[in-house]
């Protein structure tokens, strides 16, 4: 009897196991064959999403077949946060020029902002300055997220007392160096313009015909580094800017050493001016740099992390500041987000802006993208390649590539004048351009 | 035969398995084919769907273009009728579709536009000859709004003559509203491409990846890894010819269907791709569901098979178990039958033995009774006959006792009476019984006690006694004259501190036993049968009783024996150790704190030390005289003496008396330290020596604390000159008058005669009632005691006792009532005492015992 009970117990356990299996099968079958049952009514309504939309205009990121664009992904994460939080959709409209003859992104941006085509824009420093002074951009200082910004960010993006743009990252430009090649030729990383010229000379002597890979956008960083190293790090910044704005000092005096330096690089063949004039950023010079044909290029901080740029180099990459009399000098410029003053979906756009620039979103952005955050509350560690540049930033040693408090817009104008240098203009001709710009600004000020 | 059947079953199983596998293979093939067919059909259907969707988009876009063209022509007609067409153009406000309107009068290269600036056709390219509803469409360009646009131009005709050309700029963004919001759940990509510039001029909202874009066709190829030149060439040719084309190609690791769909005769192309898995979504879902159904059926089938298998296994197990149980049962039955047969045989043998054994003494009794009647005049003969009759009667009694005992033990009615006892008493009583028996047969009886840690123990002394007597009397019986019998009590390692673990060994060098007999020695009704032992009388129940009692006490008994070599019985028992506080008090009270033990045998010394451990008395031991004297002197040096000397009685190595004197002399102050000698045998010759020595006593080995204590009390009493205990051996019953309740007339007569023979008188009552009434009516002090039978008619002994004790007489509670009954078990004794009787005495009447009891109780009454 006892034994029998034991058997019954066993069967009970087995029975339970089978019952469980059958229940599992039934559940799987029901799940597989179930799904949303159709309505009893013979009517099917079309669900067309008619929720709120915010239109964003930004540069077109060309995708690569086998790589993810981390920078764009980071931005998308923050946009996703805003969409979820405010139950709306952010629609992207993008543009990039096919070639140098086409309208630049900045040109198109100016057209679109002026014609009120979108709500939210990703703006380069020069367009920030131009559109800000035209009053086409909304004052963002009242946004909640603006309160956490570092002072340098606010300074660089304030036009006529209005905070017209806020970046998601502080873009520090630097020299991207192939450390392996520097080591190969026993060269230390250049600190001053003389060091830099020496390095180029050694590379050239060793068969590297064009040691510096350049494009039509970022050569101006050499100029800024040499022009404003003292202005931003000499302790007399405000007075010097005031002197420039009032015409007591000349921009051309500041710019000349940088231009002369660039001219020397061109003349000595360290830069291929013709190529540089037509090359788009990274697309042009990037291939040779990654192929270790050129040991030096220039780019922004995020390019060291992005697989679409230099994030997957086969050599030891080091990012330093540009050479200057005060040593390596990072050049900081800020591409910021601005809202059209007459945006169609103004309130929703402000909400989106507030969310994508909140500390939480910026933390996510900085962690994903490994960049310097504009919020004073967000700190992340940088990758080893960026350490030299980061050390300078932490020491507050840098120059601004764009400063809205300067009456003459720096980033865009200098870029254009450098292009003229590339196109064969002399340094004096270039300096005259600066003088002309300064006169125009003074005149505008007077009026 | 069995093997053939098994092989047949195995083959059947394999065939069944193959059949199942075959069925499943066919089923699988069918399912696979069906799934493939469904997949193919669904795929084709999906491609048709994609084509239809693209056709729809194409149609929509063409309709928009046509409407735009129609509207523009209508506007041209309106303008033609206006007086100031330029004013109309200037006043035009742009909307979402038509963002710019311009007019160039015929014959001029410059005109005006609604933005107010001078307009020329230079920046527009109509060279491709694209038209919509007959209206020329320019190639796409980036307009002043920063968005992709195209311009249509149509002539403004007035009375059949062209007066101007109307240019209207349209933006591609306006198509967005008319295009689908999602395309294949957002997984498909769709661009609008200008076929002249190959630029992507529109990516509709919500379609494709939003985090990346394609600049132009070349970029589309690059970004999607479409690098095959032949393919690119073919695609280019189709685009140039304005044809639709689809091709398969992996996009970002996923197989996709790429398409180029011509709109407006190829002026614009829809370009993009759909991942194959999205196209085959429905087919895949159907297939998945088919596979789920098949999988579920398969699992269900397998489960059923497992269930069936388990059920079969279970049934097989149950069947096997039942068979096993049946086998065990049969075996048990066979064994039981065998046992019953053996038991029956044993009992037959037993009855035969009993018949013989009972008849033998009975024959003697009856025979001698006959002789007695003949030789009644010859006192010598009478004495001899009565002696033999008594012996036969006693044998008959022991026979009956054993039979009753074993039946009682076997029926489980025996209850142990656990009380404190001492091993000393146990050994003494056993020794007192066995030694005379052994001596009578010239056998040497050796008693040793070793390693016992506790002498006072809790147990049923009577039953232990019974075990020992049984074993030892057997040893005496089955050992020839002049043999040896060893009785050993050995202390074993304690399993628990609260229990003393003891092994009792009884060994002899007697006849021994055969291995066959050893197997049945503990069974009832068996007895070693051989020519030698046939001379020995016995019931054959002793060993069965012994084993049962041992097991009742939770112990074990083992035996080993060889014929003519002797036997060894080993009994292991555990006894609880009682509290030893009282023990310590004894020694404290008598100021005995340190004892010197002198014995040539180290084992004895160790036993003494061990047994004295619980008493709190320190024991120093010495093996030689010198050692003993050294110890005494050492103590004296410390101004201390031994409170007692324990010393072995003259051994070859030791002159005990001399040593005792030397030890005493060595003691300070010439103190007469008490000396107790341990002797192997009692000897009268020692008495004088001890008296001369003074303050000395003698006790028998083995050493026991209780024996020592008794000896100390005895010596103390002698020393104090008091008489503490004087056994009054006045067993004379002369002059006593008894009241007896006895229903059996013969028994009553025997009792009466026996008492008369002892000088006492007796009144016999037939039952308890009469006895009680007789006592009630008697004068006070008329009877000295009541002898009460138990089983009687009318009123039994217990009730009569209770009735007597309840009487309102002064002596009713005091008169000794002695149970005199054939109910001889311990519980009978308990019941008798509980009823109010003073003592229990088993029949047949042992006059000596009766005298002892009577004298004890009657005397007590007198003393009270």
Written description of the protein model:
The complex is a heterodimer of chains A (447) and B (864). With 447 residues, chain A is of the alpha/beta class. In chain A, strand 1, helix 2 and strand 2 form a beta-alpha-beta unit. The longest helix of chain A is centred in the first third of the chain and has 32 residues, at 2-33. Chain A has helices at residues 2-33, 70-86, 105-114, 125-134, 151-156, 179-184, 193-205, 220-233, 237-246, 251-267, 273-278, 286-290, 346-356, 359-369, 387-394, 411-422, 427-446, and strands spanning 52-59, 88-95, 120-123, 158-159, 162-163, 171-178, 212-213, 296-300, 317-320, 331-333, 336-339, 399-400. In chain A, helix 2 packs across helix 13. Chain A has two domains: 52-170 and 334-375, 3-Layer(aba) Sandwich (D-Maltodextrin-Binding Protein, domain 2), CATH 3.40.190.10; 172-331 and 405-446, D-Maltodextrin-Binding Protein, domain 2 (3-Layer(aba) Sandwich), CATH 3.40.190. In chain A, 47% of the residues lie in helices and 12% in strands. The N and C termini of chain A lie far apart (113 Å). Chain B folds into five domains: 2-175, Beta-Lactamase (2-Layer Sandwich), CATH 3.30.450; 179-279, PAS domain (Beta-Lactamase, 2-Layer Sandwich), CATH 3.30.450.20; 414-576, Histidine kinase-like ATPase, C-terminal domain (Heat Shock Protein 90); 581-720, Response regulator (Rossmann fold), CATH 3.40.50; 737-863, 3-Layer(aba) Sandwich (Rossmann fold), CATH 3.40.50.2300. Chain B is built from 23 helices and 30 strands. In chain B, the strands form six sheets. In chain B, strands 1, 2, 3, 4, 5, 6, 7 and 8 form an eight-stranded antiparallel β-sheet that branches. A five-stranded antiparallel β-sheet of chain B has the order 10-9-13-12-11, with helices on both faces. In chain B, helix 8 (379-410) crosses helix 12 (542-552) and helix 10 packs antiparallel against helix 12 (542-552). The two termini of chain B are 95 Å apart. Chain A binds chain B through residues 3, 7, 10-11, 14, 18, 21-22, 25, 28-29, 32-33, 48-49, 53, 60-66, 69, 72-73, 75-76, 89, 91-92, 94-96, 98, 102-103, 107-112, 115, 117, and chain B through 142, 144-147, 181, 199, 203, 205-206, 209-216, 219, 222-225, 252, 288-289, 292-293, 296, 299-300, 303, 307, 310, 314, 317-318, 321.
């Amino acid at each position: 009897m006892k034994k029998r009970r034991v058997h019954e117990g066993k069967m009970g356990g087995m029975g339970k196991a089978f019952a469980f299996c059958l229940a599992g099968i039934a559940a799987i079958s029901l799940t597989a064959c179930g799904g949303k049952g159709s309505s009893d009514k013979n009517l099917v309504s079309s669900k067309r999403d008619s929720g709120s939309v915010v239109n964003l205009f930004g540069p077109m990121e060309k995708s690569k077949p086998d790589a993810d664009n981390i920078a764009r992904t980071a931005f998308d994460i923050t946009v996703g946060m805003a969409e979820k939080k405010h139950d709306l959709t952010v629609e992207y409209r993008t543009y990039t020029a096919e070639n140098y003859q086409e309208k630049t992104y900045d040109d198109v941006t100016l057209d679109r902002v002026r014609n009120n085509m979108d709500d939210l824009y990703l703006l380069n420093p020069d367009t920030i300055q131009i559109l800000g002074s035209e009053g086409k951009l909304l004052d963002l200082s009242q946004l909640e997220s603006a309160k956490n910004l570092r002072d340098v960010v606010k300074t660089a993006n304030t036009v006529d007392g209005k905070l017209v743009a806020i970046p998601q990252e502080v873009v520090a430009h630097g020299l991207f160096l192939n450390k392996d090649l520097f080591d190969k030729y026993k060269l230390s990383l250049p600190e001053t313009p003389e060091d830099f010229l020496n390095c180029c000379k050694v590379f050239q002597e060793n068969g590297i015909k064009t040691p510096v890979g350049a494009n039509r956008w970022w050569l101006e960083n050499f100029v800024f580094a040499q022009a404003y190293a003292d202005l931003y790090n000499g302790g007399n910044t405000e007075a010097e800017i005031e002197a420039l704005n009032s015409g007591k000092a000349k921009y051309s005096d500041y710019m000349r050493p940088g231009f002369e330096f660039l001219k020397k690089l061109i003349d000595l063949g360290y830069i291929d001016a013709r190529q540089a004039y037509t090359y788009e950023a990274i697309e042009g010079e990037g291939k040779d740099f990654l192929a270790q044909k050129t040991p030096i290029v220039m780019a922004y901080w995020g390019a060291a992390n992005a697989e679409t740029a230099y994030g997957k180099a086969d050599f030891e990459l080091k990012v330093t500041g540009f050479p200057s009399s005060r040593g390596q000098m990072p050049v900081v410029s800020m591409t910021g987000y601005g809202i059209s003053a007459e945006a169609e979906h103004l309130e929703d756009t402000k909400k989106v802006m507030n969310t994508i620039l909140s500390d939480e979103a910026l933390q996510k952005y900085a962690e994903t993208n490994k960049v310097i955050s504009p919020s004073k509350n967000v700190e992340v560690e940088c990758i080893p390649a960026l350490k030299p540049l980061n050390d300078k930033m932490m020491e507050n040693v840098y120059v601004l590539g764009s400063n809205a408090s300067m009456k003459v817009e720096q980033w865009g104008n200098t870029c254009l004048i450098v292009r003229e240098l590339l196109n064969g203009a002399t340094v004096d001709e270039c300096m005259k351009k600066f003088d002309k710009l300064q006169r125009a600004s003074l005149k505008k000020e007077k009026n | 035969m069995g093997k053939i059947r098994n092989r047949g079953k195995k083959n059947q199983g394999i065939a069944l398995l193959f059949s199942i596998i075959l069925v499943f293979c066919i089923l699988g093939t069918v399912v696979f084919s069906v799934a493939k067919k469904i997949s193919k059909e669904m795929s084709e259907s999906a491609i048709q769907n994609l084509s239809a969707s693209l056709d729809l988009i194409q149609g929509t876009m063409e309709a928009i273009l046509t409407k735009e063209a129609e509207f523009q022509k209508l506007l041209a007609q309106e303008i033609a009728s206006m007086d100031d067409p330029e004013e109309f153009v200037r006043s035009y406000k742009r909307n979402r579709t038509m963002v710019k309107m311009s007019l160039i009068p015929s014959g001029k290269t410059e005109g005006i536009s609604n933005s107010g600036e001078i307009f020329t056709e230079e920046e527009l390219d109509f060279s491709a000859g694209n038209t919509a509803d007959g209206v020329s469409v320019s190639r796409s360009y980036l307009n002043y709004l920063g968005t992709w646009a195209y311009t249509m131009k149509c002539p403004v005709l007035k009375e059949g003559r062209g007066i101007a050309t109307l240019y209207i700029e349209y933006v591609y963004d306006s198509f967005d509203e008319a295009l689908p919001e999602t395309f294949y759940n957002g997984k498909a990509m769709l661009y609008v491409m200008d076929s002249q510039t190959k630029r992507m001029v529109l990516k509709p909202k919500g379609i494709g990846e939003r985090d990346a874009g394609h600049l132009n066709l070349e970029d589309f190829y690059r970004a999607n890894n479409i690098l095959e030149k032949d393919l690119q060439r073919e695609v280019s040719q189709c685009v140039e010819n304005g044809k639709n084309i689809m091709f398969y190609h992996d996009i970002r690791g996923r197989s996709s269907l790429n398409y180029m769909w011509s709109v407006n005769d190829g002026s614009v192309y829809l370009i993009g791709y759909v991942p194959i898995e999205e196209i085959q979504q429905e087919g895949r879902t159907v297939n998945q569901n088919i596979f789920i159904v098949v999988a579920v059926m398969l699992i269900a089938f397998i489960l059923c098979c497992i269930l069936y298998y388990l059920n079969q296994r279970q049934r097989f197990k149950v069947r096997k178990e039942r068979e096993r149980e049946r086998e065990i049962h049969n075996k048990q039955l066979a064994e039981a039958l065998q046992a019953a047969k053996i038991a029956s045989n044993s009992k037959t043998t037993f009855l035969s033995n009993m018949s013989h054994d009972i008849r033998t003494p009975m024959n003697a009794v009856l025979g001698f009774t006959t002789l007695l009647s003949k030789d009644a005049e010859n006192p010598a003969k009478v004495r001899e006959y009565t002696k033999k009759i008594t012996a036969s009667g006693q044998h008959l009694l022991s026979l009956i006792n054993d039979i009753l005992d074993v039946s009682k033990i076997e029926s489980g009615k025996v209850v142990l009476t656990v009380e404190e006892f001492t091993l000393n008493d146990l050994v003494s009583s056993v020794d007192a019984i066995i030694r005379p028996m052994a001596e009578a047969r010239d056998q040497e009886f050796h008693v040793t006690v070793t390693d016992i840690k506790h002498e006072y123990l809790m147990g049923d002394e009577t039953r232990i006694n019974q075990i020992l007597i049984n074993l030892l009397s057997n040893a005496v019986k089955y050992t020839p004259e002049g043999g040896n019998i060893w009785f050993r009590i050995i202390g074993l390692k304690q399993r628990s501190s609260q229990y003393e673990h003891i092994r009792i060994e009884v060994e002899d060098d007697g006849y021994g036993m055969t291995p066959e007999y050893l197997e049945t020695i503990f069974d009832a009704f068996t007895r070693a049968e051989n020519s030698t032992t046939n001379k020995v009388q016995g019931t054959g129940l002793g060993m069965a009783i012994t084993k049962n009692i041992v097991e009742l006490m939770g112990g074990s008994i083992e035996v080993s024996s060889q014929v003519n070599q002797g036997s060894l019985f080993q009994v292991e028992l555990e006894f609880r150790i009682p509290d030893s506080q009282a023990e310590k008090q004894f020694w404290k009270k008598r100021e005995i704190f340190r004892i010197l033990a002198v014995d040539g045998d180290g084992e004895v010394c160790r036993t003494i030390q061990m047994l004295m451990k619980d008493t709190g008395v320190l024991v120093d031991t010495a093996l030689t005289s010198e050692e003993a004297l050294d110890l005494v002197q050492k103590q004296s040096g410390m101004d201390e003496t031994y409170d007692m000397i324990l010393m072995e009685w003259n051994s070859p190595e030791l002159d005990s008396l001399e040593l005792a004197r030397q030890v005493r002399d060595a003691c300070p102050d010439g103190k007469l330290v008490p000396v107790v000698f341990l002797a192997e045998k009692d000897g009268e010759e020692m008495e004088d020596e001890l008296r001369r020595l003074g303050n000395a006593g003698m006790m028998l080995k083995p050493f026991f604390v209780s024996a020592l204590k008794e000896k100390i009390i005895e010596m103390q009493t002698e020393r104090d000159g008091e008489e503490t205990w004087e056994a009054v051996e006045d067993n004379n019953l002369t002059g006593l008058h008894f009241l007896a309740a006895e229903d059996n007339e013969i028994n009553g007569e025997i009792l009466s005669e026996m008492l008369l023979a002892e000088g006492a008188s007796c009144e016999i009552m037939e039952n308890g009632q009469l006895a009680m009434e007789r006592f009630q009516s008697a004068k006070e002090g008329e009877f000295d005691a009541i002898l009460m039978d138990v089983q009687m008619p009318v009123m039994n002994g217990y009730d009569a006792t209770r009735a007597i004790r309840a009487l309102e007489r002064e002596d009713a509670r005091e008169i000794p009532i002695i149970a005199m009954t054939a109910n001889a078990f311990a519980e009978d004794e308990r019941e008798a005492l509980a009823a109010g009787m003073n003592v229990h005495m088993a029949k047949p009447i042992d006059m000596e015992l009766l005298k002892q009891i009577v004298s004890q109780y009657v005397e007590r009454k007198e003393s009270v």
